[in-house]
UniProtKB/TrEMBL annotation:
This is Phosphoribosylformylglycinamidine synthase subunit PurS. The keyword Transmembrane does not apply. Belongs to the PurS family. It comes from Actinomyces graevenitzii C83. The keyword ATP-binding applies. Part of the phosphoribosylformylglycinamidine synthase complex involved in the purines biosynthetic pathway. Catalyzes the ATP-dependent conversion of formylglycinamide ribonucleotide (FGAR) and glutamine to yield formylglycinamidine ribonucleotide (FGAM) and glutamate. The FGAM synthase complex is composed of three subunits. PurQ produces an ammonia molecule by converting glutamine to glutamate. PurL transfers the ammonia molecule to FGAR to form FGAM in an ATP-dependent manner. Part of the FGAM synthase complex composed of 1 PurL, 1 PurQ and 2 PurS subunits. Pfam families: PurS. InterPro entries: PurS (IPR003850), PurS-like_sf (IPR036604). Its main location: cytoplasm. The gene is purS. It is found in: Cytoplasm. HAMAP family: PurS.
Length: 83
């Protein structure tokens, strides 16, 4: 079985309350080096057999039409994942 990973992130101009909460908590836990956090989403799509270019193309289309909201999100990655 093959797996395709789709990653979706809020557009840079969209507020990210989850990311803001996390970045505010990091220094309290001793993580001073991080200055920003953006919270995204990850989808894992499974296909029979090995991932083909046609599967990746279909995953890109699904990402644009269903897995993301193009008004507030960007699809940042559609890739086959190694087994």
């Amino acid at each position: 079985m093959g797996r395709i990973v789709v990653e979706v992130m809020p557009k840079p101009e969209i507020l990210d309350p989850q990311g803001k909460a996390v970045v505010g908590s990091l220094p309290r836990l001793g993580f001073e080096q991080f200055t920003a956090v953006r919270q995204g989403r990850r989808f894992e799509l499974t296909v029979e057999g090995e991932v083909t270019e046609a599967d990746l193309a279909a995953a890109r289309e699904a990402a644009d039409k269903l897995l993301s909201n193009p008004i507030i999100e960007d699809v940042v990655s559609v890739r086959a994942e190694e087994a």
